[in-house]
Request: fold
Amino acid sequence: MRSSVTGFVGDTLWVAVELESNSAFQRRFSRLAATNVVATLMVPLAGLIDVAFLGHLDDIRYLAGVALAAVLFDTIFWLFGFLRMGTTGMTAQAKGRGDQDEVFRLFLRAGSLAIGLGVAILLLQWPLREAGFWLLQGTEVVEAAGRDYWEARIWAAPFTLAGFVFLGWFLGQERGGLVLLLSAVANLTNVALDYYFIVVEGKGAWGAGMATALSQVTMCGVAFVITLKHVPRLWSLRHGVLARDKMRSLLLINRDLMLRTLALLLTFAAFTNLGSIMGTTVLAANAVLMKVQLLASYVVDGLAYATEAMAGVYFGQGRRSELKRLVVLASKWAVAVGTGVAIAFAVQPDVLYGLLTVHDEVLQRLRHDTLWLLPILSVGSVAFILDGYFIGLTRGGVLLRSMLIASGLGFAPLAVAAWYWSSPQLLWAAMTAWMFIRTLTLMREAPKTWSDSDL
Reply:
């Protein structure tokens, strides 16, 4: 009897400790996720307000032109998204190992790379612009509006890339409050300047571009002020930051992330370009739907960012057992968010889309296509979580392979069919297939990382 009682008490204590551990785990994830969700949500909300300002102008060409030019900036800037992603994963792992000096060296290393790449973009802005508008197709007036947007926004390139590093560095340290602050500064500034340049000054597409540019400059200024207190330590660690072996290691780690991002952005560019070929109304409607998709994906990205940071820290600490439940918890939350957004727009399309545009032909197209959001957002939300997970582990090769398979076998065949038959429905089917295959390939790889033998 004594033995049984002792065993019972021991089991009870073990369960209590395990439950406390689970509770602490969920609180940690919830706290980090909540701040990141709010921070990332500000980005699409600002974008939706951009669309609302431009969509309520008398001429639809401003909305369509900005949608066209935004593809160029997404392709250029997001191509260097590894500056954030790689910085987050490597910083989180260094934090997990307790190597604070390396945390600061990573900031200097990535920051130097960002500034160099930003200056290179400015020097190459003319050929980049001409090549971009040659590849994309739009009517003459739509392209003119897009060029106005380009001319205003391009000058913030170094600040945009530096902002990636600031966000990735703070996120890797699980400093979600600072990520939230910087996102608030950037996006609230963007909204205020949108109103000034578009509504008050009547600058149209150029005004939208200038608002975005100045918001990036403002965010970097605030981030720089925050890091001023670290200047003495950063200065003391400057030696060896730009050493060839260290920079080579940084570039090799981020190479796959860059190629993966390129494949992703080319898929989005092809989607937008094919919509443009199908007419200005289809292009404008697809732009609105993509903004809604981004609204949901940025919320899910908040969860994915929390997953990135925690996965990197657990990896650095060697706590493999935490990785599986991190993926499971984050995926459950993500599916709930993605499905909820899709259902809301499917149930009330006129009310919600009416906030973004007043053009009847665009609203009619949106009512016809809105159900595509349900499979894309419900299944695709898991892909976003797994993206964050593998970024935290700095497993860029896994992400690259998944993206190439999804783009080549999922999107491309249906996209060609959509172009041949000029079918917007087939175009959305291509996007859906792309998201499904991304999710399935990443789900297949995730269990392989939950054992010591793989990591």
Observations:
- The two ends are 45 Å apart (CA to CA).
